[in-house]
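Quick start: read one record
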Amino acid sequence: MSMFTDYEIYTQFRKAQSLAKGKPFRLPSDWDTFKNKRISVVNVTHLDRATGYFNTTWSNIDPLTYMQCGFELYKTFTYHMFLKPQIISLYIEKDKQKKRRIKINKESLLESIGFIRDTVGSKELNGYSKLQIYCKMMDGDQRVIINHYLHNNIDPLLFVYCIYYKYIKMNDNDRILCYNIINRYRELLPLMFEVEDLIKSKENL
């Protein structure tokens, strides 16, 4: 496992700060000069301690998510607050929620994949994956995947995956029918990325 540098931890802190405040940020071009002249000795000590924790006790902790927890708890979150126990407690709780969410999403995805496998059956693939063939299937003028999604047979994250990889191209009528997906696309996209590898591994069902 690679070790974090103090610059990398500083970068994640500034990135989390930017996300919290909705403002862009700039990183110093010369880190050593910036650290020695622009950051106080006390704050450098706090940064060094945090870096040490991320390389040892917290080696499984994602620094960006951790820093985001800091800004969620404290509007004025800064160096001397890096090791507050409330932050790691919030991080652990969020991590548990994320793992539960991924587990639930995986179960739903596997059910959808089984449904698609039965629907595609033994159709010729012609170089496509079974998921791609499924996305091409039509029921009259309507895509089969859209009908199945509307009947709760297709997991929303699987649907988002198919949109993201352009397996389906939606017309205006499709977008109206699937307004829940369209309106929540940006919200669902990062959740899809959490299970993207599972979907990729199951494209041939």
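The mean pLDDT is 93.
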